[in-house]
Write a structure and sequence with these properties.
This protein is mainly alpha-helical and 358 residues long. It contains 15 helices and six strands.
Length: 358
């Protein structure tokens, strides 16, 4: 016989449903937000130790083991939160074995960041607009296992795709893994902008867009100018005009001009030491340079160069994808890098006389 709810405290079926709904609402509106706020605070809270801790991660050691030992040594406040933060941010595959110095008062965020860089990591910055040669020089200078000429040989078909950025690299990294890192970073950084839809809309291939972006990187400084210059070059491409880009000439004649400055044959082979001091983007172009017979010389040959002349950043690639349509066909820079545009060759020549002649 069922109990009489009037005499006994009996939860009816309808009441159970109401209680369940209230609990769900409480969890969604109160418990989860409070838990999230606590989590954001807790992972950034300094550890409760006043001493620097030397901590060793063994090769192949699992993250839960690392977390337990961190808590035991008071390097972090919670092994659970350490595990949760690592796996939530997908950092479990980035934590490297090694010996670390964990500063007093480090938070979980600080410790995970430290573990990702490794004890033998080298911070190396490759700048936007650098040629492969410049990247190779920097890599060889900063990383003891990188050979300049081997790097150049392996990147012969990678110009434009060695993404310029700041990297934390293993000190013992060699040429092939470094190239993979640079290429992979390019793919990761551009996957949401160099989409099939974006490429189809602009009417150029992905390779042409990167090639054009390499010219834009060297030809314009701010984003708006890059958009305008991109629009000019695309218009000239579509109308079968020569691009007349000085940066492509600079790319073509850099070694030639260095050899000439040293009183040597124009096809001399500079040593690696000489390459480190070479001007890879000579500004003092003369008539002989402008007529230098190279497929990279867009003042002589129509169309894009055979390959990108440098490694562009995201902004230059986006400027090509979002180029501005204008009435201009020509542009020129003054000594301070300001850009002046013209719709006719007559106006362009006036701009040259006005802004570039001493």
């Amino acid at each position: 016989m069922p109990l009489d709810p009037r005499k006994y405290h009996v939860v009816l079926k309808e009441q159970k449903k109401k209680i369940l709904v209230i609990c769900i609402i409480f969890v969604l509106l109160v418990f989860l937000p409070l838990s999230f706020i606590y989590y954001k605070f807790a992972v950034k809270r300094p550890s409760q130790t006043a001493d620097e801790i030397t901590f060793i991660i063994e090769p192949g050691e699992e993250i839960p083991s690392v977390a337990q030992r961190l808590q035991k040594t008071n390097a972090v406040n919670s092994a659970f939160l350490f595990n949760f933060y690592v796996f939530l941010n997908r950092n479990d595959t980035n934590i490297q074995a090694g010996t670390y110095k964990i500063k007093a008062g480090s938070s979980i965020v600080d410790v995970v960041e430290l573990f990702q860089h490794g004890t033998n990591d080298v911070k190396v910055t490759f700048l936007e607009g650098w040629r492969n040669e410049q990247i190779a020089i920097k890599a060889a200078q900063e990383l003891s296992h990188i050979d300049y000429r081997e790097f150049i040989a392996l990147t012969e078909n990678n110009s434009g795709y060695l993404f310029p950025d700041t990297y934390f690299l293993r000190g013992e990294i060699q040429e092939r893994p470094l190239i993979v890192t640079l290429r992979t970073t390019f793919e990761t950084k551009t996957e949401n902008i160099l989409t099939d839809e974006a490429v189809d809309e602009i009417g150029l291939s992905k390779e042409q867009i990167v090639n054009l972006a390499s010219l834009i990187e060297r030809e314009a400084r701010d984003y708006e100018d890059k958009q305008i210059v991109a629009g000019i070059l695309i218009k000239r491409l579509n109308e079968d005009m020569k691009l007349d880009v000085d940066a492509s000439v600079q790319y073509a004649v850099a070694v030639k001009k260095y050899c000439e400055s040293q009183g040597r044959e124009i096809d001399c082979s500079p040593t690696v030491d000489e390459l480190t001091v070479m001007n890879w983007w000579p500004q003092d172009l003369n008539l002989d340079d402008l007529n230098y017979n190279s497929l990279y010389n867009t003042r002589l040959y129509k169309g894009l160069p055979p390959s990108p002349i440098c490694n562009p950043g995201i902004e230059s690639i986006e400027a090509v994808l979002n180029y501005k349509q204008t009435p201009y066909y020509y542009y020129v820079h003054d000594i301070e890098g300001n850009t002046y545009y013209a719709s006719t060759i007559e106006q362009h020549n006036i701009n040259i006389q006005k802004y570039t002649q001493n």
